Amino acid sequence: xxxxxxxxxxxxxxxxxxxxxxxxxxxxxxxxxxxxxxxxxxxxxxxxxxxxxxxxxxxxxxxxxxxxxxxxxxxxxxxxxxxxxxxxxxxxxxxxxxxxxxxxxxxxxxxxxxxxxxxxxxxxxxxxxxxxxxxxxxxxxxxxxxxxxxxxxxxxxxxxxxxxxxxxxxxxxxxxxxxxxxxxxxxxxxxxxxxxxxxxxxxxxxxxxxxxxxxxxxxxxxxxxxxxxxxxxxxxxxxxxxxxxxxxxxxxxxxxxxxxxxxxxxxxxxxxxxxxxxxxxxxxxxxxxxxxxxxxxxxxxxxxxxxxx
Length: 309
Ligand SMILES: [Zn+2]
Fold this sequence. Notes:
single chain, Arginase, Chain A, 10 strands
């Protein structure tokens, strides 16, 4: 079966101030990395914009309206020190939400085996009512709730291997009984949350802090001990991945030492679990990853594994 890949120029239309690491070039690097003939069998689709109301799956109405009204007609509008909107930001944000929900639809229906959405801005730092860390709406939490609402799925798992804690996803899903959120992240590091004792109202938050300098071998043994058993025990009906690639050794924003092959390995192991518990249903969404070479090689390893389904 096929892997769905969603890319779109709309994601390059979200401009950031000069020198910002979360830049449109990330999209072009990924498109170049996935242009080779070994990726010919991907089902490639353009983005589908979601209506603004889709954001209500994770955010209160007032916050959604504030974000929608904050996009400037020119230049930048800063929402916090490192999170700003440009004239193209709202289009990109709606396209990221719509594409994630569409990918959930296609995977739930079984028309593709799995999916990867190469979108920006990322979303996992966006809390219920706070934009931060380059994020506005929490796309992965929205996708999880969409899977429940539109497809009647109950048990969902989100695995967040971005090097930063998925504080926004944790905030939004804190009271969930059926959505398991697992985040591994370097600690201490931005945004500062993500300790093991932050477990959510019903114990469905599972934080796995990693020390600075963690390499591939350490990462793999920690994942085998702490991440994969919990993921499989949840028996999710769909697995969503907050796929940041900033734990790569080249990344300028963090200090872990993963290689592209480590992301390929993690992908393979998640697929093995997905095959056992949910017919292989995986939807993976780009989060961070700020070194273009580290990002593109890691995405190629990740998507290359997804295509083996
Ligand atoms: Zn990150």
